[in-house]
């Protein structure tokens, strides 16, 4: 499925911002391509930038990478629940609490990238296993309707959003 296959009733709210950033390719291809692009991008960041904050109270690059990993896990969990036709509304999460408790700055960049790769590969296998019917299923997360397919593109768009933040504010 492509972004253009997602109907307007398959997502709401802020999710649309990320979906628009995900690219026009097929979901599985974009998940794979964005994995390699992100790793290559991060590997080219100067070592002295990983613990840099561009302003007081802002996250470091390591904290943002951990945030991308944590958020992908949460979105994938939502996609799993909805793909299995679980109609239970899922709550939002407080990203600052996750960042404050991640200890990302104590980790090496290689550990973070290895974890990112493992999470993405797991999600690629998950999305490959889904039928078109499962991809179109819709659930409620953070008081917004969203389909399993849309969540896949949100994962990609969220990652690309933060990569752009790195370029604009950290490098």
TrEMBL record:
Q: Where is the DinB-like domain?
A: 31-163
What domain of life does the native source organism fall in?
A: Bacteria
Pfam family of the protein (one): DinB_2
Read off the InterPro entries from this record.
Answer: DinB-like, DinB/YfiT-like
Listed SUPFAM superfamilies? DinB/YfiT-like putative metalloenzymes
Provide the protein name: DinB family protein
